[in-house]
Amino acid sequence: MTTTPQKRRPSTGMPSPMARRGNGGASSAVGRGAPSAPTPSGAGLANEGDQYAPLPAVGVAGELPEDERIDVAEIADLVDGRWAELRRSARASMGDEALHRIEGLTKDEHRERVLTQLALLRDTGIAHRGFPTYVGGEDRPGGYLAAFEEVLVGDPSLQIKAGVQFGLFASAIHQLGNREHHDK
Fold first, then answer.
1. What is the value of pTM for the model shown?
2. Which three-class secondary structure state does DSSP give residue 134?
3. What distance in Å separates the CA atoms of residue 159 and residue 152, rounded to the nearest whole number?
4. Per residue in 130-179, pLDDT tens?
5. What is the DSSP letter of 164?
6. Residue 64 in contact with residue 39, Cβ under 8 Å?
7. Residue 44, by phi and psi: left (phi above 0), alpha (psi -120 to 50) or beta?
8. CB 24 within 8 A of CB 45
């Protein structure tokens, strides 16, 4: 088997990331005693036979000062964003094992289960969030989308089915239909 020579990046005058991190062996100053992370086929490593790149030293000796601690709740609020409450509510709903995927089902059994799960998901109220109040919704499409993202936690197939039924089909009626269509 022949191999094609790989093109090298032009030199920037800066040492390569591998030169800055050491050669990956036990003599490396950075990462001495630290765990290593696997890299694909040892590509790009200083020693061609190496399959692991050194990671920075792990752990901190002693306790961090109180003013250097991370407020996990505050980070979660930032990550969850504007719809944090609805995301958390959806995650709690997805904690119901009836909404979880079961491995090993046949295709037909899984399809039947997802259809049953769709009715359960409808009953959580997630699907109603994006529709106008005059049809029983909450008129919060952003809240629907935020909660919809969390459905993936339970069963990815359920998220796809819900996206088709509530996101595509029902939204098409809502956006393209008139009041008569909405009332049906």
1. 0.57
2. helix
3. 6
4. 888 988 889 998 999 999 999 998 999 999 999 999 888 888 888 888 88
5. I
6. no
7. left
8. yes
